[in-house]
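Please check our next protein.
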Amino acid sequence: MSESEAEVEGLKHLTAAEVKQLEACIETKGGQFKLALTRPVEVGKTTYTELTFRAMTGRDLRNLPVGGTAKLGDYVAIAAGMATEPAAVFDALTPKDTSRVIEVVGFFVGHS
């Protein structure tokens, strides 16, 4: 998938290579997806340069409101639950990285 194809699907913040990795994660049981951060995040004494997500399951969607009432924070909370990093890391992300995380969750919802 080219970068322009990713944009056609509405993925403005993820690269074509990242989309390909997401697709592979979904196809592989127990697969993981790593998202490099555009700016490192420091939480406590640890610096994070990437986030690691497992493939989405139905459990991740339990608390997602239905009927168009979901907030951005709902998607960030889902992402934090799918990640190996502590939830506090997600609170410290830049707006750009937060947008990328939301696109990851949206991709999983639409393709899992």
Notes: Residues 3-111 form one domain. The chain has one domain: 3-111. Strands lie at 32-43, 46-54.
